[in-house]
Write a structure and sequence with these properties.
globular, binds nicotinamide-adenine-dinucleotide, alpha/beta, binds magnesium ion, Rossmann fold, seven-stranded parallel beta sheet, single chain
């Protein structure tokens, strides 16, 4: 796929729908070959219906995993992801619900384990964002929603998953470049993404003795439904990166495979910065 660096005007509401995007994002490179890196593994991916989560889900299936995906309401996107996974000859369980609710987080883990007999890879990835120009524009209701959506469920789902994760299993948390460089229009969102970095580092330390590794991915601007659903003007999205374009979800999936698999066996508490070349500390 030729990776676009200009996007047509388009409008959506959150949660955005992948099938309504123009152009539709690239989920996985046509040339990507799996090599059983996740054979017989079970993965649970929040926000796995679309965008970065969908790419991780399809790459995991290519590598031999069975995948449960949690999503808020986008049935058609979720069913399309399920089909992509089934086309790889793997099973996919769809779990619809609101991760702000801790009981639902527990239920999601339970349903995954009931269906597949265990859990080896948890990807915490669901999020929303509500761009605002100043702190004064962020009311307490938005602040609560952002934190309750973007960081609380990472705790809830990880906690429920811990009962099942064993030696060699992994947790991967999606943060953002905004955690590292800040964002003048995403004050609350970038704060939750910073919390995710600290959560990842801290949890990695509590689980190291069990050899359960906890890492994260910090994406830069990636062409996913979140973008047309939250930004008014997407035409130049990603052009201010050194590589001069937005990333595609297909450029994220392999990072999740690496962190989920034995290839990263000596790495924990770390982030991979898939951001088009922005120089930020890690
Ligand atoms: P996306 O819209 O495709 O994925 C987000 C998903 O989160 C949605 O599919 C939705 O179903 C799910 N979700 C949101 N609220 C939920 C809730 N309350 N309960 C259950 N599910 C819920 O967008 P994406 O860009 O692929 O986002 C994935 C992750 O990547 C997010 O953590 C986002 O912050 C992060 N990220 C994205 C970018 C980017 O430029 N797209 C940059 C940095 C970080
Ligand atoms: Mg979605």
């Amino acid at each position: 796929m030729n990776k676009p660096n200009k996007f047509p005007e388009q409008e959506q509401k959150q949660p955005g729908k992948e099938r309504k995007m123009r152009p539709e994002p690239e989920v996985i490179r046509a040339s990507y070959k799996g090599s059983d890196k996740l054979k017989n593994k079970v993965a649970l991916i929040t926000g796995g219906d679309s965008g970065i989560g969908r790419s991780a889900a399809v790459h995991f299936a290519k590598e031999g995993a069975r995948v449960a995906i949690v999503y808020l309401s986008e049935d058609k996107d979720a069913q399309a992801t399920q089909k992509m996974i089934e086309d790889e000859g793997r099973e996919c369980l769809l779990i619809k619900g609101d991760l702000k609710d801790e009981d639902f987080c527990k239920e999601a883990v339970r349903r995954c384990v009931d269906a597949f007999g265990g859990l080896n890879v948890l990807v915490n990835n669901a999020a929303m964002q509500f761009p605002k120009d100043s702190l004064n524009d962020i009311d307490s209701s938005q602040l609560r929603t952002t934190f309750e959506t973007n960081i609380y469920p990472y705790f809830f789902v990880a906690k429920a998953a811990l009962t099942h994760l064993k030696d060699g299993d992994t947790i991967i948390n999606t943060s953002s470049v905004t955690a590292y460089r800040g964002s003048d229009h995403l004050l609350d969102y970038s704060s939750t993404k910073g919390a995710i970095v600290s959560f990842t580092r801290s949890l990695s330390q509590t689980l190291a003795s069990k050899n359960i590794r906890v890492n994260g991915v910090a994406p830069g601007p990636i062409w996913t439904p979140l973008i047309p659903a939250t930004f008014d003007d997407v035409s130049d999205f990603g052009q201010d990166t050194p590589l001069g374009r937005a990333g595609q979800p297909s450029e994220l999936g392999p990072a999740y495979v690496f962190l989920a698999s034995e290839d990263s066996s000596y790495i924990t508490g770390q982030f991979i910065h898939v951001n088009g070349g922005e120089m930020i500390g890690s």
